[in-house]
């Protein structure tokens, strides 16, 4: 690692003051930042430790959920309120990384993690995200893991988070602060598409820091939600495609409301609300689900190695919705009697 | 130079209070191996991918390669050297021997600390859960079935079927 200065912030104002310096980065879990610093992908001259700011709450608030930016991923996923009222979020978090990493990684850091595109990580290669203007070898190179939606000439990176896919499906809000005040960012507007400025991952402005994330009440989806993650091995791998699906069903199986968000396919969690609206009033079943998949994947384009993601994403959407329709317990690997399926 | 500043770090390692002065960029892993002289904790990938460096911080398992020593000031660290009580092996250490849960042994300190953390967490209710919740520890010799055997043995799981609602992997199992 390159030498850097280190300070510990004891309150939010001190952290925000330190972040006025553009070469200073906040460190929470450190699981992605330290990795990037070891590879010289990121070279901050100073780190400010933000772990002691009292922002580690996981609690019910205003009928919904409040997640402190510094609460750990594991503590969030296993929290009784999250498990019982937001099973989709719990499942998504537990599908990511390893137990050791989830014990360290913070909720804010999960949103701020960088792409795992191999060119971004390899400082010996060009990368528009790491060094704007140098080019994107991924388009014609190693792109098996990379995006099929919302790509640009300059970048086909994906956002690697699982947690964020569920937060997008559940209409979360990101609460941020800077020295000049606080503002709220709808989750849909937090991460961005690469366009011709792929070096910018999200809409957090210089000097701003995430303080907490809120999720509105979503009890109508408790019984019918599923997070499906397709990857090259059964555990501890980034998604090729992931789908967060939630349904609100009538007693006769008619869809009252649906939520569908995808991971592993774009520079941000991918959600097309029109596909969800079209499901309202329809009976659950493959025909309706395929139609939704078609709408969500409109304009999808592969780059050779990742062409398989088009049919994979379509099938994963259908499977996630089918699994959600059968019930959250089924999605968790349990049948109605609580026995392992 | 601000960058050259040494930071005082106090840690309780395996029940012993220790004090160090370290540069900001020293990871907990490097402190343990190079400053504390405790080489039981292994450096594999140094990127949080292999789990060989797993230790317990205040009873929770983490990758010691991905945290700075200075961030752990005041914490209680348990490494593989701290699992046995005198000459009495930790039940997991004995189970690893009984189940033949290693070949070369390089990943074993991390596997053991990870398994202690898994048991502390109390989330595993089946063998599948154990496999899933040990996935942060790679074993290039491929002793995974025996490692799962050892952990299952210590957890005293007679029935591998889930009887209570467990955690979910999110994985496509079918």
Overall radius of gyration of chain B: 17 Å
Fraction in helix of chain B: 25-40%
Classification by helices and strands of chain A: alpha+beta
- The tally of beta strands of chain A, per DSSP, is 11
Which percent range describes the beta-strand content of chain B?
A: 5-15%
* Annotated CATH homologous superfamily of the domain at 221-331 in chain A: CO dehydrogenase flavoprotein, C-terminal domain
As for the CATH topology of the domain at 221-331 in chain A, it is Enolase-like, domain 1
Overall number of strands of chain B: 5
Chains forming the largest contact = A-B, 53 and 49 residues
Rounded to the nearest angstrom, the distance between the terminal CA atoms of chain A is 47 Å
Report on this structure.
The complex is a heterodimer of chains A (about 350) and B (about 170). Chain A contains 13 helices and eleven strands. Chain A has a domain of about 110 residues: 2-Layer Sandwich (Enolase-like, domain 1). Chain A is an alpha+beta fold and about 350 residues long. Chain A has a five-stranded antiparallel beta sheet with strand order 4-5-8-6-7. Chain A has a three-stranded parallel beta sheet with strand order 1-3-2, with no helix packed on it. Helices cover about 30% and strands about 20% of the residues of chain A. With about 170 residues, chain B is α+β, with helices and mostly antiparallel strands. Chain B folds into two domains: about 80 residues, Ubiquitin-like (UB roll); about 60 residues, DNA polymerase, domain 1 (Orthogonal Bundle). Chain B has a five-stranded mixed beta sheet, sandwiched between helices. In chain B, helix 2 packs across helix 5. The termini of chain B are far apart. At the A-B interface, helix 2, helix 5, helix 6 and strand 9 of A face strand 4, helix 3 and helix 4 of B.
């Amino acid at each position: 690692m390159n030498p850097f200065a280190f300070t510990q912030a004891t309150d939010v104002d001190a952290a925000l003051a330190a972040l006025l310096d553009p070469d200073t980065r906040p460190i929470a879990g450190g699981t992605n930042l330290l990795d990037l610093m070891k590879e010289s992908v990121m070279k901050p001259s100073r780190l400010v430790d933000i772990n002691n700011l009292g922002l580690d709450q996981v609690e019910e608030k205003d009928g919904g959920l409040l997640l402190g930016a510094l609460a750990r991923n594991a503590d969030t996923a296993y929290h009784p309120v999250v498990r019982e009222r937001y099973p989709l979020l719990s499942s998504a978090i537990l599908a990511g990384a390893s137990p050791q990493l989830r014990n360290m990684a913070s909720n804010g850091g999960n949103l701020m993690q960088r792409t795992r595109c191999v060119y971004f990580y390899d400082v010996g290669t060009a990368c528009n995200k790491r060094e704007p203007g140098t080019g994107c070898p991924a388009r014609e190179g190693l792109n098996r893991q990379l995006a099929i939606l919302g790509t640009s000439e300059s970048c086909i990176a994906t956002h690697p988070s699982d947690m964020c896919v569920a937060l997008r499906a559940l209409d979360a809000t990101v609460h941020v602060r800077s020295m000049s005040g606080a503002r709220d960012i709808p989750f849909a507007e937090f991460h961005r598409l690469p366009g011709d400025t792929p070096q910018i991952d999200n809409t957090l402005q210089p000097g701003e820091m995430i303080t907490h994330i809120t999720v509105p009440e979503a009890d109508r989806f408790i019984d019918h939600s599923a997070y499906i993650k397709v990857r090259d091995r059964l555990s501890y791998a980034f998604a090729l495609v992931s789908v967060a699906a939630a349904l609100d069903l009538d007693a006769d199986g008619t869809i009252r409301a649906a939520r569908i968000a995808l991971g592993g396919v774009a520079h941000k969690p991918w959600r097309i609300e029109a596909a969800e609206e079209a499901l309202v009033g329809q009976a659950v079943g493959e025909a309706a689900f395929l139609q939704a998949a078609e709408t969500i994947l409109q304009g999808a384009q592969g780059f050779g190695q990742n062409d398989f993601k088009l049919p994979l994403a379509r099938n994963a959407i259908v499977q996630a919705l089918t699994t959600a329709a059968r019930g959250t317990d089924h999605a968790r690997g349990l049948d109605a009697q609580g026995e392992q399926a | 130079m601000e960058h050259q500043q040494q930071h005082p770090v106090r840690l309780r390692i395996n029940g012993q209070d220790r004090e160090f002065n370290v540069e900001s960029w020293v990871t907990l892993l490097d402190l343990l191996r190079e400053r504390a002289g405790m080489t039981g904790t292994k450096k594999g990938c140094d990127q949080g991918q292999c789990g060989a460096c797993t230790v317990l911080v205040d009873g929770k398992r983490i990758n010691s390669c991905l945290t700075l020593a200075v961030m752990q000031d005041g914490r209680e660290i348990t490494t593989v050297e701290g699992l046995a009580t005198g000459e009495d092996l930790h039940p997991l250490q004995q189970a690893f021997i009984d189940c033949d849960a290693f070949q070369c042994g390089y990943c074993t300190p991390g596997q053991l600390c990870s398994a202690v953390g898994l048991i502390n967490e109390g989330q595993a209710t089946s063998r599948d859960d154990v496999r899933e919740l040990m996935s942060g520890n790679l074993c290039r010799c491929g002793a995974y079935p025996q490692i799962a055997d050892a952990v299952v043995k210590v957890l005293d799981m007679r029935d591998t079927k889930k009887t209570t609602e467990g955690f979910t992997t999110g994985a496509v199992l079918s």
